[in-house]
Amino acid sequence: MARAFLLGAWEFLVGDDWPTALGVVLALGATAVVASTDVAAWWLMPLAALVLLRWSLQRRARSLARRRLDAPS
Amino acid sequence: MSSSQLSLVASVFLASAVEAVEALTIVLAVGTTRRWSSTLLGVAAATSILALLTVGLGPALVLLPIDTLRVLVGALLLVFGLQWLRKAILRASGLLARHDELAAFARESRSAREAALPTQSFDGYSFAIAMKGVLLEGLEVIFIVLTFGASQHRVPLAALAALAALLLVIAVGLLARAPLARVPENTMKFTVGVLLTTFGVFWGAEGAGASWPGDEAALPLLALAIGACSLAMVGELRRQRARVEPSSGATVEVS
């Protein structure tokens, strides 16, 4: 029951894109580290979000292109 | 109303409207093909569960320290928002087939007709399909209501925005008596994806200890920047697609 719940929650939140979820956690950690110094840290999260989005899109686009090429015509 | 409250209402309203349109398609398909009484019972059961979740989890979330809450909500919204945005960009660029309510309605109706109709008045199939459809679509709405609402300590306002969207979709659905196929779902999903990502970035960074130049005044600029970059990514994917398959209009169906 607990396992099914956790699997459902994982699927709901993360779906098929765990590298992006991991990237978000790492970016938040990096922001916390930079914020604890005298350097401004606000720019890190927007940059990370856009890099993660583009990376995720490229991976998904490649996988979709492979699916189309493999599909019988 | 402040800009962050307006953004809260807009984000929750749009996200709820998109999910309500998809849930309405399932409910209409099952209800018109089989039995309305059991279908509406399923809708009522799912709505009750969703309301209980909001009432139960909302006050509990608000008790968390604000920085902990914002970093948690920021991370969740960002992961969720990037998923919405990725799907909307892939659809806008033509790599994924757009969601078609009429096709979804035809699919659900076909499945509903193929399942055997019971002799007694209660139809378990209609109940289960309607309940599952409303619950699954509604969970995304509840997630957005709770995260947005809790971060601004305005769960009731977020819940009202969701309820307004739901009532609007039901009213239009009743008038049209058909799936709402002309709703620009992908544009709405794209906008919601941009808003979820914007708030995820804003609250996540703030919760992690960063200070935004101009505080909440940074939100509209952040949304514009994320929206513009996302549109640029649509253009980039379209050009890539045109280079790889110049004569093909093929898309992959993903629900």
Contiguous helical run count of chain B? 8
Class based on secondary structure composition and strand pairing of chain A: mainly alpha
**Mean pLDDT of chain A, nearest integer?**
88
Number of strands of chain B: 0
Task: Report on this structure.
The complex is a heterodimer of chains A (73) and B (255). Chain A is an all-alpha fold and 73 residues long. Chain A has helices at 2-13, 18-35, 44-70. Helix content of chain A is 78%, strand content 0%. Chain A has one domain (17-70). The model of chain A has no long low-confidence stretch (mean pLDDT 88). Chain B has one domain (3-241). Chain B has helices at 3-33, 36-62, 66-92, 101-114, 124-151, 155-176, 185-207, 218-244. Chain B starts with a helix and ends in an 11-residue tail after the last helix. Chains A and B meet through α2 and α3 of A and α3, α7 and α8 of B.
